[in-house]
Write a structure and sequence with these properties.
Blueprint (H helix, E strand, L loop, with lengths): L4 E5 L2 E5 L3 E5 L4 E4 L3 E6 L7 E9 L2 E10 L1 H6 L1 H23 L13
Antiparallel strand pairs: 1-2, 2-3, 3-4, 5-6, 6-7
Length: 113
Amino acid sequence: MNDEITTTFGNRFYSFDGRILEIFGSDPIRFHVRYLHLSVTGPDRKGKRTVEIAHGRPEAPGARYVWTYTAAEWEQAQGLVELLEAVQAAVDSAAAVSVSGPGPGDGSGSGPG
């Protein structure tokens, strides 16, 4: 991903460059895709959705940030939804690379020499 994705929703400005998710508001925070867990749950029976972003992995989360959105807010948050989808794709991609390990030509010395 070469392009930065940005969106503003409520009192927060979100920026994602393919590796780092930054959320600016009253307390700016940063997450790296190799060290974050993203969960979007819902809608519940009232249409409410919950977004949780945690430093770390699901099995060992660190600091957690949780936001809840009503159905009406979520409908207006298309830019945020698209940004979160891009973040989740990058997290999944980073996890796949971690699981498969380094490959040839990565400087690890395991490639043809």
